[in-house]
Amino acid sequence: MIGLTRLAFLMLYRDRAKYLALVGGLAFCTFLIAQQAGVFCGVMLLTTSTLRNVGATIWVADSRTEQINSPVPMRDIEVNRVRSLPGVAWAVPVFLGVLPAKLPDGSVQNLQIVGVDAGSFVGAPKVMVEGDIQSLLLPEAVIMDQVALEKFASRGVQLRIGSRFEINDQEASVVGFCHTKRIFSGFPHAFTTYERALQWVPPQRKLLSFILVQPKPGESEETLVARINQLSGLEAFTTNGFRLETMRWFFRNTGIPVAFSVVVLIGAVFGLWVTGQAFFLFVHDNLRHLASMAAMGATQGRLAVMVMFQAFFAGAVGYGIGLGLTAGFGFLVLPAEVPAFYLPWQLPVTVGLLVAVICFFAGGLGVWKLRTAEPAMVFK
Amino acid sequence: MTAAAAIRCTGLSKSYGSGETSVLALRGVDLEAYTGEMLIISGPSGCGKTTLLSIACGTLRPDAGRIELFGQDLGGLGPDELAALRRKDVGFIFQQFNLVPTFRARENVAVPLIIAGMNYGKALRKADEMLATLGLADRTRHFPAQLSGGQQQRVAISRALVHQPRLIICDEPTSSLDAAAGHAAMQILRDSALAKDRCVVVVTHDPRVFGFADRVVTMEDGRITQVKSQVASKDGPTPEHTP
């Protein structure tokens, strides 16, 4: 069978026009599906970036909060209520909100303000590029991220330690720079203390966004989440639970999944159509030669294996090229993180399975056509 | 005729289509072909000669009658058994040569050996040897499109002979060739039949090649109307056979 497989390979590979049409179609289909799905995964990752930027074991929110990016404010007193619950090692407040920053040239740039507990710095940046977190205790101090550097620079403002600007008409002074994961809104991060953040925000009765909680040693996260939900009337989430809840919200309330699904569907249909048609034509054009082989003693089963091999070989090459192009796209955009792109291992596996289905369909069409390759047809 | 029967057909009938459009291609044909013999089947288009050829080599089943190949009744064999029989005992030369255009000459010739399960490299070496014996040693790596009609025919003959079959089936082997190339091709087939004790069955319209045959069978309207035995010339047709 190895010899026949080799003949099948030569038959396909040396028919350059059809080979390139097949491989090109499958590569394009793979690229379209994997790249769009990768961008979708990247966008979904953006929606939950705050969970990674702030970092906590358990998040407690107002019971009406549906996702991380739109907290419903609570009263400060809720922090103490949560602290008093059994199984809680510590609980600290965090403020998340968007405030306008006024640049020296008069333009405005919205900032994602993160106000963290000044005593523990829980929720403070994980990766400092310049300066240190303790500097947040200085008057008017903020730590800006790499996105702020880019955004400000695009308006001619070179941020450096000591730079000053206004946040909601109040002075802010840069004391450090950090690296964060980009967020869905694209706004730069400005980290400060919880108390200072509240001074920048217009006065309201409720300003607390979330309470970050650490369970006592030996206390499971799920158990504590259930207890907080039961005893406080608030809504507690594990980080993973909050991530899923946020993603579900985007699925339910935005057109993003549908938009990407349509493109992925087009890719799959295109692949199925082009590959199926090209392969059917390839088998059709070679039918007389396949029938000759049948006359010479090749069984229908062995010819079918040859045809399926050709379909899957073209599929493997097309998939490889398509995935290579997707990876190339990823390497191109990842440094700037625009557009968002994330390629978890499940994605190439799923796309590979989809391409295998397409190849099975195309090969099946070929085998179906092969049924007409009666040995006697070579004498007609 | 003292040689063993390679093909024995008894009462073969075959029709195509059904109802009013039904066409009777063979009407109770009896025929024997022997080893060491070159048999030519001739007749006008639609007389049933290609149908007879297809049935004789086990690529088509008759509606009625019995067909034996080297003493084996083909009626009792399934598709895979028939394929195995053709793999071992039958070599084919098709009207349009049917060389795979994307295969080199040596790869085309190696096809029957590879189908029979021979190692790929060994099959190519055997193919090279076969092509060399037919004077194509310097054309083994050429694609069919790079060969002349006569050379393509010699590649097709090499492919038919390479696995040493006992029966060679030829469908209009000279129809695409000029007189000289057709003569050369028939000479090779004739020599092959005589030297290896094979049976060579040729379907042709071409009267120029009748002189190569030991017997010429003429068909008309699905029946054999004439069987003419003759002493075939070792070097091809005698002048009276050449129009």
- Estimated radius of gyration of chain B: 18 Å
Low-confidence stretches of chain A: none
Q: From N to C, what is the helix and strand string of chain B?
A: EEEHEEHEHHHEHEEE
Biggest sheet descriptor of chain B: 6 strands, mixed
- Helix-residue proportion of chain A: 40-55%
Average of per-residue pLDDT values of chain A: 92
Q: How many strands, what sense, and barrel or not for the largest sheet of chain A?
A: 6 strands, mixed, barrel
Shape designation of chain A = elongated
Describe this structure in words.
The complex is a heterodimer of chains A (380) and B (243). Chain A is 52% helix and 17% strand. Chain A has 380 residues and is an alpha+beta fold. Chain A has 2 domains: 2-46 and 256-379, no CATH class; 75-233, no CATH class. In chain A, helix 2 crosses helix 11 and helix 2 (16-47) packs antiparallel against helix 12. The longest helix of chain A is centred in the last third of the chain and has 34 residues, at 300-333. Chain B is an alpha/beta fold. Chain B has one domain: Rossmann fold. Chain B is built from 6 helices and 10 strands. Chain B has helices spanning 49-56, 79-89, 105-115, 120-133, 149-161, 179-196, and strands at residues 5-16, 23-34, 37-42, 64-69, 72-73, 90-93, 167-171, 199-203, 215-220, 223-229. In chain B, the strands form 2 sheets. Chain B has a 6-stranded mixed sheet, with helices on both faces. In chain B, a hairpin with a 2-residue loop joins strand 9 (215-220) and strand 10. In chain B, helix 3 (105-115) crosses helix 4, helix 3 (105-115) runs parallel beside helix 5 (149-161) and helix 5 (149-161) packs parallel to helix 6. The A-B interface holds A 2-4, 6-7, 10-11, 14-15, 286, 288-289, 292-302, 374-376, 378-380 and B 50, 53-54, 57, 59-60, 79-80, 83-88, 90, 92, 94-95, 98, 100, 102-103, 107, 111-112, 114-120, 123, 171.
